[in-house]
Amino acid sequence: MPTRFHWTEAQDTKIRRLRAEGATWESIAAVLGLTRWAVIERGRRIGARRPPRELTNVREDAARDPLPPGHPQSWGILTAGTVLENTPYPLPVFPR
Predict the structure, then answer these.
(1) How far apart are CA 78 and CA 35, in angstroms?
(2) What is the pLDDT of residue 52?
(3) Does 55 reside within a domain?
(4) Residue 34: which domain range?
(5) Looking at residues 7-26, what average pLDDT do you find?
(6) Which residue would you say has higher pLDDT here, 25 or 72?
(7) Tell me, what's the pLDDT at 93?
(8) Among 22, 24, 48, 83, which residue has the least CB neighbours within 10 Å?
(9) Domains: count for the chain
(10) Residue 95 — very low, low, confident or very high, per pLDDT cuts 50/70/90?
């Protein structure tokens, strides 16, 4: 059975700081010399999150027709920040 790794407060602080600055899990793992999954799990346990994305104010034409289900514009808004981000809607296919 593998030995248990003991996290230090300095490592936790570094994970929180780097994640708040927008660093990826891969880069944080490289800095700490640990595996990506170990750092991801520790980051989740200590609540290390990326800062929220900047919101953009886009004015739309209020008189336009509604978009069909799965349209790239609405699908992108719905999936932003999720595991489905940047994946196409499965059906139907819309030209971009």
Answers:
(1) 31
(2) 75
(3) no
(4) 9-46
(5) 93
(6) 25
(7) 61
(8) 83
(9) 2
(10) low
What phi and psi values does residue 85 have, to the nearest 5 degrees? Answer: -60, 135
Angle in degrees, CA 59, 72, 53, rounded to 5: 60
pTM (2 decimals)? 0.54
In a domain, residue 75? The reply is yes
For residues 31 and 43, is the Cβ–Cβ distance under 8 A? no
Q: How many CA atoms lie within 13 Å of 53's alpha carbon, on the beta-carbon side?
A: 7
CB 26 within 8 A of CB 43: no
DSSP string, 32-63: HTS-HHHHHHHHHHHT--PPPPPP------TT
Helices (H) and strands (E) in the chain, counts: 4, 0
13 and 42 part of one domain: yes
The reported pLDDT for the residue numbered 50 is: 80
Nearest-10 Cα torsion for 10, 12, 14, 19: -170
